[in-house]
Every structure is written in C-alpha cells, then in structure tokens.
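Hey,
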Amino acid sequence: MRLVLMGPPGAGKGTQAKFVSEALNIPHISTGEIFRKNVTEGTELGVKAKEYMDKGEYVPDEVTNSMVAARLAEPDAKNGFLLDGYPRTLPQVSELDAILDGLDTKLDNCVEITANTDEVVQRLLKRAELEGRPDDTEEVIRNRMVVYARETEPLAAVYEEHGILLKVDGMGEVDEVTQRLLAALGH
C-alpha cells in the first residue's frame, strides 16, 4: 500500500505513522528523517539542505523532491510506503505523481487525520510545558493550525478529486485512532 499521511500539528501523525507502517509492513518515510540522514551522511543534497536548515528556512522543493525520489526508489519502498510530511504544496503533489509514474506505480490513499483545534491546542500547550518549549505559546500554536489549514486544504481537495482521500478522526486514545485508521484502509 502506498500512502500519504496528513494532519495538523499535534494530531498524532508521527505516532500513528509508526503504528500503521508496522501494521501494514511498509516503511514510514518522514521528510524530516530524510533531511537528517542526508545531512549526517554529507550527501550532495544533504549539504544543500543544511544550508537552508541552518538559516531556519524551508528546504526548496527541488532539493526535497530529489531526496524523496531517491528514497522512494530504494528497495524497501518497492511494495509500499507511508509518506509523512510530503507533499506539503501543490507543486509537490504534481512532483510526487511524476516520481511515482517514473516508478510505474501510484498512490493508493491519502489519509488526513482530523482533530478538534481547541483540543489539539491544549495537547500542544501541555507538550510544550513538559518538553520546555517556551516559544510554543497558544498564539503561535493557533497560527500553526491556521497555516496548516490554509496550506493543506488545496492538497486534500486534489486527493479528494482523485477519489483517494480518507478522513479519519484523530481524537481519542492512541489505539482507538490506530484502529480507525486501519479500518479506513481496509485492514
């Protein structure tokens, strides 16, 4: 199964990605992990990405797309994958389609974890307090939610048009959400 996982900050995407990838026996491919691996290994793409990351800037699409293409071409992704953190923009949606065309495959589903904004804000405020993140104020967190909604809404619309968007309620206990996700995927 070839999946994209989307969801607002604090919806439990990372946690769910881990459980779903294990249940489906497919690799969890996180763009954050791809960046860190390339930087650590000192690859040409990693050196380019680090220049932007060190300045606190987004890594440009052409670098991100190349890293994702290389990762999806690895043998463990041949029979499926769960992409987390990519695509984030409409051009990346098109690029992912082109990457998959080149691999003679396509996405099976895009799963969007939905969450109640107020509950997620409280969850993130608690996490900020526990992890000592003084910059994660309610105002900052709410802004991140607005940015997420604005930027991902067009992506969700594209995947809905393709008939592969699944929305899953991300509120509740971790195992309940995992069961909802797997059921939505027919497992």
